[in-house]
Write a structure and sequence with these properties.
This protein has 402 residues and is an all-alpha fold. The protein has two domains: 180 residues, MFS general substrate transporter like domains (Growth Hormone, Chain: A, Up-down Bundle), CATH 1.20.1250; 195 residues, Up-down Bundle (Growth Hormone, Chain: A), CATH 1.20.1250.20. Helix 2 runs antiparallel to helix 7, helix 3 packs antiparallel against helix 4 and helix 3 runs parallel beside helix 5. It is globular and about 60 Å long.
């Protein structure tokens, strides 16, 4: 029973503990970040939106260079350095008093997030044995969800205080969490940079056309997360008769299933063929979910709730399968000395999805009145057909080690 909820003792369990710790702080912050900036610092909603958009663009532009840094100095050092920058950023948040100081602090946060993300994956791939690597990453993701859920509850309590000290606690708790996380990571077993790491330019990964095509698959699969977080709530509120409280129950169901089933979902992600199969399942399941959601606009009462729940179940399964496959592809395909750069390439294409996905998918699903769901389903069905040839191309193409 313990093996189902905890990874084996040692480094894997340390990684899980770190993920839960840092996620609590992030959950606290993310729950009330918009409230903090509009109420505590006095920024307008438009300024906050523009600032977050600029931060997203910076994250996109920094993915490859910071992946290169993680390769060069080692994942552990990059992770600790990113944590230190993150602590600084959140300690500066209460001092924000104008738009450009807000943007400057968000830029620090983007730098921190890029370094920690690249460092964590490079370190995990280098320090965890190959036979347990994907399973360990699944445990980490599951405990991140647990931590975010706990943090969101604490953040909601802080907002409920309706006071400046309560809002200040949002950022200070996250700063403390990031500090403790960095300290925790610095005490993990050392995993030096791979021999030859950092010799090649970060842009060289773009010449690996098979892998670039694979990152395109990642980008499309990320749309399923956009569907769940943005499009489905808007669709349910504006195009169905489902009561608004139902959305909270659907989100809770997704979180619980993601925690319980993320590790079992990785069972097939032990080879290129197995990971390709999971990717196909994820794409086809998302296509089916789109058709289910389209149908929810023509039902009523409890039938609507049941149809929406079925759609969320399908999206949750797709999320679990696609993340398991991505764990394998992003750690086993790249050469050991360039995992950070390859991860940066994947994050760049996913960043493009984050940029265009919410507006494009909302227009297709909600703005068209519903027929756009069929278009989105067709995109995922086409992606499912492309997975096998793309993964085969990746598998038969050697990767240069320098």
């Amino acid at each position: 029973m313990i093996a189902r909820v905890l990874p084996p003792p040692g480094l894997a369990r340390q990684l899980v503990a770190q993920s839960a710790l840092v996620a609590v702080g992030w959950g606290v912050y993310l729950t009330g970040s918009v409230v903090f900036f509009t109420v505590y610092t006095g920024l307008s909603a438009v300024q906050v939106g523009i600032g977050f958009s600029i931060s997203g663009l910076l994250t996109l532009l920094l993915s490859l260079p910071l992946g290169h840094v993680a390769d060069r100095i080692g994942g552990q050092r990059a992770w600790v350095l990113g944590s230190a920058v993150g602590v600084l950023a959140f300690l500066l948040y209460p001092l924000v008093g104008a738009f450009w100081s807000f943007v400057a602090v968000l830029a620090l946060q983007a730098l921190s997030q890029g370094l920690t993300d690249a460092g964590r994956q490079v370190y995990t791939a280098a320090a965890v044995p190959q036979e347990t690597r994907v399973r360990t990453m699944a445990f980490v993701r599951a405990y991140l969800n647990v931590g975010f859920t706990v943090g969101a509850g604490l953040g909601a309590a802080a907002i409920a205080l309706d006071s400046r000290p309560g809002l200040l606690a949002l950022v200070l708790i996250n700063a403390a969490g990031i500090f403790l996380s960095g300290l925790f990571v610095s005490r993990m077993p050392a995993a030096p940079a791979a021999p030859g790491a950092g010799r090649s330019l970060p842009w060289g990964v773009l010449r690996d056309h098979p892998y670039t095509a694979l990152t395109g698959i990642f980008a499309v699969m990320f749309f399923s997360e956009v569907l769940f977080s943005t499009v489905v709530p808007l669709w349910a509120i504006t195009r169905t008769d489902a009561p608004k409280p139902v959305l909270g129950a659907l989100f809770a169901m997704n979180t619980i299933l993601a925690v319980l089933l993320q590790v079992p979902a990785t069972r097939g992600a032990i080879s290129m063929a197995g990971s390709a199969r999971l990717s196909r399942w994820a794409a086809l399941t998302t296509a089916a979910a789109c058709l289910v959601f389209a149908g929810s606009g023509r039902t009523g009462g409890w039938v609507t709730i049941a149809v929406l729940a079925l759609g969320v179940l399908l999206l949750t399964a797709a999320e679990l399968w696609s993340s398991a496959a991505e764990f394998y592809f992003t750690t086993e395909v790249p050469p050991p000395d360039r995992r950070g750069i390859y991860l940066g390439a994947a994050n760049t294409t996913i960043g493009i999805s984050k940029f265009i996905g919410p507006a494009a998918l909302t227009f297709l699903a909600v703005g068209t009145g519903g027929w756009g769901w069929w278009v989105i389903a067709a995109v995922f069905a086409a992606t499912a057909l492309l997975v096998h040839p793309v993964v085969t191309w990746v598998g038969r193409t050697p990767r240069r080690l320098a």
